[in-house]
Amino acid sequence: MKILKSNRSDFKDWQITDENTFNNRRLILKGLGLSSAMFAGGAQANLFDWLKEDEEPRKQASLMALKYAADNNNTLSLTPEDKVTSYNNFYEFGTSKQDPADYAHKLTVNPWQLEITGLVNNPIKLNYEDLFNQFPLEERVYRLRCVEAWSMVIPWIGFSLNKLLEKAQPKANAKYVQFETLRRPSEMRGQTSRFIGGNIKYPYIEGLRLDEAMHPLTTMAVGLYGKSLPNQNGAPIRLVVPWKYGFKSIKSIVKIHLTESQPKTTWHLAAPSEYGFYANVNPNVDHPRWSQAQERVITSGGVFNQQHQQTLMYNGYAEQVAHLYKNMDLTQYF
Amino acid sequence: MLIKLVIHIICLLWAGSIFWLASQDALGADPVKAVIHFYGIGALNLLIVTLLVSPAAKTFKSAVIMRQRRLLGLYCFAYACIHVLCFWWFELNFSLATFISELIKRPYIWLGMFALLILLVLAITSPNIAKKWLKKKWQPIHNFIYLAIVLVCWHFFLSRKADIYEPGLYALVALLLLGLRYQKFISWFQKAFGRKTH
Question: Using an 8 Å Cβ cutoff, are A287 and A247 in contact?
């Protein structure tokens, strides 16, 4: 389907990932006799670091190579894989963006169970293997626009959520889809303490209107960069809604629940004036604390080579999704 | 002299190396956020150290410690300036219009800018000449540093999404530093409101 191809033509050659440049940073650090971990912390160093537990960050076991329908036109500007997998908001593992990469290896993703329940005629339970085998996988390159005014261009691998929902057969009175992240404090340190987990409510809840969930752009991702998802990116399965701010794209999903009433979503509950239920990317509606008119695309390049660009309505997918919000006041339903 | 040299080396080397790493894309995925946060938190750390000087000098009865205060305060101001510069330069791409509109729209930026303004005045009036010229007015002007640390902590607090414990801990430290000076505050309070009771 045409719209599944994303808006790749918007990306220029100069935005293409230069992995060499990225890898060089390690050499630069080595040259200084410093480890990158030390500096990742050093940049954020503060008086209270000594209060934090001293855990040795470990690498996750190797990721599974996936079979998928690839994109053949490789003119896309991707965010380097290292950046995609080391800069995450996943408060279940800590509030700093480095925390998920450091602590998510503890999460057991296999075995896994994803349940589709609520207002459906055919409740479904998917096991770990089912996530990769039940639906043909496609590569979809989307720009993930964070509500914090940065974005990353990521080659996701997954399938349309509507395929899963069609299998579950939503009932006529189903209007919303609620998503729930795993709650497992023994493996998710953020859920053990408000000090680590940023004082938000767990399990993390997100939601979509059923018509949004059925839109072919709405993706269930099981991989990125050709492999299964790293834990910090929401393994084994996560949502990707390319026209909404990143916090809608809930990670490590265990439950999809169809309901008649609008789900009470985590960030909306935490700060209703800052995070709406809809969270559509909209350059004209500011976050109370910053402008959403522009964004920085995170690619390779230091502070002098930043890629600033105007944020696009619905993150560039207005043609495909604007009709979903006809006659809605977007400043009220932000 | 040696202490001053050490302060110079630490502050310059740290600031410089972070900036250089940021320019080489060697500061994590988003070097822009990294530099803005580094200089912001660095300025706050230096403000805390500056406010520790006089209690420490009194405790250890050391004039040498006392003589480091101005230098530390100036570095605090310098870090704060770089913090704002990085925000304007790298986050806002040097757009003056966006910078001004952000300045107008965001309460947490008002707090930060107000604190920076205080630090600017303190920096300008820090040379011995200014001290001589201002005479008795110098100390009241420099007491505004207490307001500055309150504003900076508040600014830090408001800039956070949900993980407010770190700014909370900083606020606690600020409160302790102000608490060490409680006698000063009581005497101001009495001068301002209290009639002299016997």
Answer: no
pLDDT in tens, A162-171: 999 999 999 9
- pLDDT value at residue A265: 97
Q: Which of A199, A219, A203, A154 is nearest to A4 (CA)?
A: A219
Cβ of B105 and A87 within 8 Å? Answer: no
Cross-chain Cβ contact A296/B41 below 8 Å: no
CA distance B197 to chain A (A): 43
As for the ipTM of the complex, it is 0.83
- Give me the architecture of the B2-183 domain, per CATH: Up-down Bundle (1.20)
Rg of the Cα trace of chain A?
19
Domain annotation covers residue A188: yes
Please list the ranges in chain B whose pLDDT falls under 50.
Answer: none
CATH value at residue A98:
3.90.420.10
Interval A269-321: pLDDT, tens: 999 999 999 999 999 999 999 999 999 999 988 999 899 999 999 999 999 99
Contact A292, A149 (CB under 8 A): yes
Label residue A260 exposed, middle or buried (CB < 10 Å: 0-12, 13-18, 19+). exposed
In chain A, residues with a C-beta closer than 8 Å to the C-beta of B170 are: 46-47
Angle between helices B31-60 and B165-179 (to 10 degrees): 20
Domain residue extents for chain B:
2-183
> Each residue of A79-101: pLDDT tens digit?
999 999 999 999 999 999 999 99
A198 to chain B, any CB pair closer than 8 A? The answer is yes
Within 8 A by CB and 6+ apart from A5, the residues are A71
